[in-house]
Design a protein that fits this description.
The complex is a heterotrimer of chains A (406), B (291) and C (275). Chain B is of the alpha/beta class and 291 residues long. Helices cover 21% and strands 29% of the residues of chain B. Chain B has 2 domains: 89 residues, Elongation Factor Tu (Ef-tu), domain 3, CATH 2.40.30.10; 129 residues, Nucleotide-binding domain of ferredoxin-NADP reductase (FNR) module (Rossmann fold), CATH 3.40.50. By secondary structure, chain C is α/β, with parallel strands linked by helices. Helices cover 38% and strands 10% of the residues of chain C. A 5-stranded parallel beta sheet of chain C has the order 2-1-3-4-5. In chain C, helix 3 packs parallel to helix 7. At the A-C interface, strand 3, strand 5, strand 6, helix 9 and strand 13 of A face helix 3, helix 7, helix 8, helix 9 and helix 10 of C.
Chain lengths: 406, 291, 275
Amino acid sequence: MSQTHKSSAQASPKSAHGSGKGKSPSVGAKLVVGEEGIATLLAILKKIGYKTIGPTLRDGAVVYEEIASLGDLPVGWSDEQDGGKYRLVQGTKGSFFEYLVGPTSWKRYLFPPNHKMWEADRKGGSFEVKNIDPTDIPSYAFIGVRSCELNAIRIQDKVFGFGRDDKPEAGIFSDPGYVERRKKSLIIAVNCSRAGKTCFCTSMGGDPHVVADQGHDLALTELISGSRHEFVVEVGSERGALIAELLSCRSASSSDLSDEEAVARKARSQMGRKMVANVKDVLKRNLNHKRWEEVASRCLSCANCTMVCPTCFCSSVEDKTDITGNHTERWRTWDSCFSIDFSYIHGGAVRRETKSRYRQWITHKLSNWHEQYGTSGCVGCGRCITWCPVGIDITEEAKAIKDTGE
Amino acid sequence: MSQAAKKNESGCGCHSASENPMHPRPFKVKNIWKELSDTFSMSLVPEDGGSVEFEPGQFNMLYVFGVGEVPISVSGDPNDRGTLVHTTRAVGLVSKALDELKPGMTVGVRGPFGTQWPLDVAEGMDLVFVAGGIGLAPLRPVIYQAMAERHKYGNIAVLFGARTPEDILFSKELMRWKARLDLDVQVTVDRATGAWTGRVGFVTKLVSSGGFDPKNAVAYTCGPEGMMLNTIKVLHERGVPYDRIYLSMERNMKCAVGFCGHCQWGSSFICRDGPVFCYEQIADSFTIEEL
Amino acid sequence: MVVTTRTKKTTKSTKSGAERRYRPKVAVWKFASCDGCQLSLLSCEDDLLDVVGEIEIAYFLEATTAVIKGPYDLSLVEGSITTEHDAQRIRKIRQQSKKLITIGACATSGGIQALRNFGDVDHFIRSVYARPDYISTLRTSSPIHEHVPVDFELRGCPINKNQLVEVINATLNERAPNIPHVSQCVECKKNGTVCLMVAKGVPCLGPVTHAGCGNLCPSTDRGCFGCFGPSEAPNGPSLARQLEKLGMSKQEIRDFFRSYNGNAGAFRETSEAYD
């Protein structure tokens, strides 16, 4: 994989060309592979040293874990989702990617739930901090990343400083661990063939189908009907092009491309939820709305929404000593604005009431995020709605505030 | 003139860009002394022999091996490039552990972080420093700096309120400042005890009578949020516009570099966009409860 | 601060690199309980050996008959208060203990035996014992913190041994123990456990239950039944409404909240609303 390839920036997606021997396809090229192409893709990724993380069935849901072969995919499975409810159901026979986003998000791998930041030992009267060797960070290949998830990854990139200029702005830092993981990750996106009841990516500026420059290396669109089971492969990066070259692809025909567009159209038309317009300002204007009290009567303050959210990034640190006190480790662990300790300053927590904590979460996500990172913190994946045990719906709360607020 | 509290132009004084901002740098405790019954100061020098740089208003994360880390404002002189001075109250496990350290022991330091008190916006104008209790500690570096370049400013008023005479922080220094002809130092206590013959009442009283020209002054305040809110109110009533009032906020800073989310306050990360803010820019947030 | 002045001094010398010489005296006390939490301490095995090297076991009848007189640097207290005699005994123990940590559901909430608090104790005594007049008991089973000040409460039925080691470790090293008071859901999500309630409709107390068990039940396909008691901000009524939607009867909901930690504030209030 040391060969580099210059992309032809002019290459139009329509002028897709195939994988002629020794010549890798251009960025933007669209190719077609069959089922065996996906099997080959998995095999190639493993062979060149990637840890392949993708969709698989576990405990009644599609989760993202290490997969080895086609047999690990949730073949033929789909899901039904609604507020507080997720059920696996039989989908189109033989389909690989009919399911929608589940309880796992890719942040689990890029921003792990528990992560040792450093360790230190007493040395004489002082102590010595040891760097955590970055070589144990694996190269991940993420398989099945949806368009909303790509957007979420790009949002966390901004939080943790991946892809910033080499010259850091004063006071702005990058997280070395995140940057290293992200740099080594390969992204095989999958376009959604449908949308669920909790999906609303289109009202958050997204689309169920990935577009050029969205950060993927390859993007797959599953075409399944009758005896046909093929995948349109869009080359998203030069790294992706080098991998696509190793698959036995044919160029996408105009009929393949119109089939692909039909898949996108269908998914777009099925969005089950919708975020109200201008939510950023609506929430900002209504920090003392009585709805906060009302939602607090339902909110369990359990933090599920923040744990499943693919952009939530809050964490805490734990200092752990060994029993002798001579060795210590600092761990970073997922935390949530729903915990009371989260806002603790001496004398007590700032956000003692659930209504304040819920308000913090939703205003951060939908409003303050814009000022902090130039983007909404919500991608419309719907996880927080599905995985809230009592089905609190971010779109419904925003609408209630808009309808009855200032 | 509305200007945000300044980002530290020099970046992070303890870490070059290539270093991990999450790793503490070992400092030796040079000296540690009691200020008040529950308040102490400590001076620190880097074990690696390097220099320390900070801007007035910034804070460091101080780490006691195996115990934990806390954010504490620098209270020393910014022109002393060899020593860091911090002043804090021993109220939590970590600050109590700091209090128990002895000269020669090691403290981990990350920082400095955050915004600084902007003095350049005040050239040719009067300066008003309004502190409540331990809030004098984060203001002291900027007072030092103003005194070091005294000719640049008009009147300088240092208005300080403590709960009781026993709670007057840096009392000897305040006396020395008081003796200077080019500083107007006034101290009040909420409640007089013992032989106190000075002023009694909230610090806001000093603000309403203090010797500065409100039309041509910049104010810097630090203390409990209620005290700052009242101070800002009185300053504004006297005619100091909101864009010439700066304050320092306190929240639960854990990582100090904008990753952990704990210190969020509205759209600000106190660790990065603060702790020093221009009041005009955060006025909307300041009165929202439990924000 | 956690340990004694003496310990502090030696810990300071540890801070400058010397070995800690003073071994804090630790006592383990039992009140009304099943001994399960004390057994957790014994089942720490390797970790326990490390801990034992650092402390002096002054009183621990489950492990040794040797008794060293107080005062004690740290007392670990298992069990609830159910008799007047015990109510007096815990006050004496508190007087002799610089630090007192309660361990387990009995000590922190009254335990399963606090079910008596919802019934008629005289009736129980008459129906169970041949000679009711021999029985001397309080009308309630109550947690230790209702009788004496408690420095830290370690939850669980039984406690999690790793958490116990963490609390002892933190106490010896004078730092805050890493025991978050968040919900069991946080533990599930960090562990990658799929939510049983959402994905399968299984009733679960996880959203209102204190984390710390090590995600035992949910990770083995069982709903949480609240062994660790209420989390820091439990919303019992909202969860109960959801349990109704999942098909639980009012009585089932009452009984669900009323078990090992049935006497703990939020759990008790919710079960009483369904009584």
